[in-house]
Amino acid sequence: MKEDNLSAFEDFFIVGFSDLPKLQVPLFAAFSLIYLMTLVGNLLIITTIYSNSHLHTPMYFFLINLSFIDICGTTIILPPMLARIFQNGAHTSLAECLVQTYLFMVMISTEFLLLSVMAYDRYVAICNPLRYMTIMSKAVCMRLAAGIWVLGFMTPLPHTVLASKLTFCESHTVNHFFCEVPSLMKLSCSSTYAIETLSYVLAAVELMMSFLLIIISYINIVSSVIKIKSKGGRTKAFSTCASHLTVVILLYGSIFSTHVRPASSYSTENNKILSLSYIVITPMFNPVIYSLKNTEFKMALRKTKNSGQIAG
After folding, report:
1. Least buried of 71, 86, 108, 116, by fewest C-beta within 10 Å?
2. From CA 291, how far away is CA 294, in angstroms rounded?
């Protein structure tokens, strides 16, 4: 195969959903609706928490961060994807491609770290309730949030730098709806060993460590909850964790099934479908998951709505 040393300004062709011409209108309508629901749902969570002082607690502070990540992550991917649907694909430079995949990886990396911090928050709230506000003070929460954002921006940097060093074959066609690194590796004529190894190292260090912290937190939570004598008390304790645990299962399940595997087993068609689960579906459902059974949040939402009607 002929190798091509791309400059940062030469382009790739993003196929998107151009191979499904009969579904262009339904796909555009569906993804536009999903994007709108994601924005409205997550902005509603941020507004409701900000507007109600009794929600200014560590759990809701981290929930604001999660909603912000979901808004940013979908905005990085969905608007360009929607623009390409009626263009039958689109060209993008290598530089633009790497910027998009880097920023999206930042959001995913930060979300994993945030979910582990949220698990720790639930552990402290249930296992050490009398010292909860001392341990999870405002200063501690701010430092934890700053730490996960800094790590979120740093972690994908080596991965992105290595991707920029790849040389590519004659085909520059990316059979995906956005420029992700596995798609670029599939087109590379040079060795992908270094970047693939780094992917596994990052997965082991970040994904597994954050997942391990979540598991440890929940083991301690369960062991504390089963000691509660009243059934009502146990139910209430578990209900405070149900939303977080649901989001963890959705995100980790989709990410592991999509990315934690050898490049040789990578299937572009399957990857398109699997990617939708964590790029589109999870951010849309997060607001619903966190508010559906949260009586405190629903009361605050009604209060915010009533205040808006009175002001109007």
Report:
1. 86
2. 5
Q: How far apart are CA 244 and CA 67, in angstroms?
A: 13
Q: Is the pLDDT of residue 9 over 50?
A: no
Structure confidence by residue, pLDDT tens digits, 139-166: 999 999 999 999 999 988 988 888 888 8
CA angle (298, 301, 303) in 5-degree steps: 110
Q: What 8-state DSSP symbol labels residue 263?
A: G
- The stretches of the chain forming alpha helices (DSSP H) are 24-51, 58-85, 94-127, 132-135, 138-154, 156-164, 181-187, 193-202, 209-225, 231-259, 268-276, 282-292, 295-311
pLDDT score at 42: 93
pTM reported for the whole predicted model? 0.85
Q: Per-residue pLDDT tens for 41-51?
A: 999 999 989 88
Q: Which domains does the chain have, with CATH numbers?
A: 11-311 (1.20.1070.10)
Spatial separation of the C-alpha atoms in residues 86 and 25, rounded to whole Å: 8
